[in-house]
Sequence to fold (850 residues):
Amino acid sequence: MEQYQVTGMSCAACSARVEKAVNAVPGVTACSVSLLTNSMGVEGSAAPAEVIRAVEEAGYGASLKDAARSAPSAAAAEEALRDTETPRLRRRLFASLGFLLVLMYFSMGVHMAGFPVPAALQGNHVALALLQMILSAIVMVINQKFFISGWKGLIHRAPNMDTLVAMGSGVSFAWSVYVLFRMAGAQFRGDMPGVMDGMNQLYFESAAMILTLITVGKMLEARSKGRTTDALKSLMKLAPQTAVLLRDGAEVTVPIAQVHTGDVFVVRPGENIPVDGVVLSGSGSVDESALTGESIPVDKAEGDAVSAATVNCSGFLTCRASRVGEDTTLSQIIRMVSDAAATKAPIAKIADRVSGMFVPVVLAIAAVTAVVWLLAGQTMAYALARGISVLVISCPCALGLATPVAIMVGNGLGAKNGILFKTAVSLEEAGKAKIIALDKTGTVTEGLPKVTDVLPADGIAEGELLSAALALESKSEHPLARAVVSYAEAAGLAAAETTGFTALPGNGLQADLDGTRLTGGSRKYIGSLISLPENAVQAADRLSGEGKTPLFFVRDDRLLGLIAVADTLRDDSKEAIAELKNMGLKVVMLTGDNLRTARAIGAAAGVDDVIAGVLPDEKEGVIRRLQELGKTIMVGDGINDAPALTRADTGIAIGAGTDVAIDAADVVVMKSRLSDVAAAVRLSRATLRNIRENLFWAFFYNVIGIPLAAGVWIPIFGWELNPMFGAAAMSLSSFCVVTNALRLNLFRLHDAGKDRALSPVAEEDFRAAVENIQSELIKEEQTMTKTIGIKGMMCMHCEARMKKALEAVDGVVSAAPDHEKNQAVLELSKDVPEEVLRKTVEDAGYEFVG
Fold:
């Protein structure tokens, strides 16, 4: 997404106009304009020059943000977010108020309260009216921006809020000038009743009051809007400005921009860590609350990663820079928050559609109102007052701000608590989910399994089993492998060097050691290679029932034994899952474990159901099936979770997971706590509720206010609205919307006391769907793998001949002969008797080994 800064927008009609113009540019696939931050996100292949030209032709200005975000300094980025609008509006407001108060003195004060006037003006009503005109004109000049912007909107056939304000004030002023000339004529003729009648038809004070009150509202709105970016600004303030590098053995302080990947830097107690890096020497505790919200400092030692903007509480650390500039964790967080502000939530489309036609409709209503009152026999002054009231009370701004202010505040609150929503869509959609799928390893559990049982086969010593397991597992990165390696190394064993290492995802490992073939893996996989002893099967069943994972190890065709490994639940998993269920979500756990192990862990965690035996490439398909029941969240942390995270309606990555998972997700939980997933859903719902409140107020205000201003209720209740009160109401409408959004800052993310279920999935539908998915996976598991020995194959032609013969056997799905290894790996849909395979091999002219 390319980001642009847009200037000249004043209301939702402006942002709708810009969005429409840019979407019409060839090559633009998506465009989202934020009135809150005056920014625009554009996706597609269109050149920036074409995009900027389209914005300018629509009557506004645009420029690329910081040369396509070339990692500006924190000071420059903070300056870009600094609220410059409020001070400017405050100065304009004070100047307007000064002249308005004088104007009100000579208009309403003199006539209604009998305030004294200078002798030169006593009895000279035309001079008094002329003074009012001059004061009103000064206020109009001070607030000329309304007229410039409104006129530009009319020229480009895109009237906006400023058009309404300018017309309301301008018509009041023009009518009053006309009345002033009539008064002058009446005074020249000596018609004093005509002069006095003219004084009652002057609206100079209304023209000035409308502009001043709208400026009051604009200033309050700008001030509140400035507060919505406080979270982003506080993040930017965290970025250190300097770093202490080690160069030629000496410490050198340099600006942060001069730090490069690979540089060695030092951090003393109390200092901020300047960039992301890895500890080379030293130890200490680091306060990471700025990034994760976790208040307890984290111990760091050699080899541990550290992040920019965290604080070294104790100890002297020497580190090597691993990520600098816009690649640091802090910069990525800032980018996520700002990107989310530049996107648009689906619920905003309602307001966008209304805003696009709002101003022209209001102009038409104002004109019709004035004409109807004239036809009803009222004076021109009265009819104009009703039309002007319609113009100044109508507020498209409230519609345009209803969604983005809530999104910005909600996203900022999430960032403060280590929950990052990448887009406004993810912030809205997370709260609508009905099902949440949790990857077991690293999400529900710690992801750091430990060896619990070592059971050698008959005639095999424990040391022999551990040595073989260590040699095989030492080249694997799988968490279960690391558990076995750690246990064997702790027993004082060293890994022997193996060759021909092969990892079979979801099944097991193979390698050659001293002329023998070592194989390790699940009971299903090993059972397809050799016949497992009954005592080993019973031991595996018992361990699985306890929630442990039994790993079988074989040398050639002989079972060495099994090693049981268990993963422990995260401290907050049970509580977090209970909270998710309390919010009406159906919680299902996905795991590659067998069904007995999965159910044991699922029962301990408290999930609604489990789906076991899910291979890495099957998770995406499972999520697709769950989505048939309703919107689905996927929570994971590994590379193999990425497709499922992308497929889900909302993908949530646990922050301690891989970069691939984080890139694929819509939401990132920095603290790696499952309770923060519940908090993310809770925050999403609160934000969506706030948006609905804002939209209701914006629509309700206009639906009630416009008929009142038009005088619909005058014949029934006698309710009549002065244009000045209409302007005051318009000023407050946007302020109320923004203030309501700021209430989100008081929301407590981790308070489950007010959670409630929102139209949950029917229990029977959920159970049926999970059972269907599980049964399909079990059917797939029933496809067995068997390896047979064959001698006599000499070349690829022999392999092809053997492959054709074996695949003709009923029950053989596929065959992969290998003349170098003297074997063939068979995929079987059912058990094929050994005699059948023997006959097939021998009929083909080769020797069946077994």
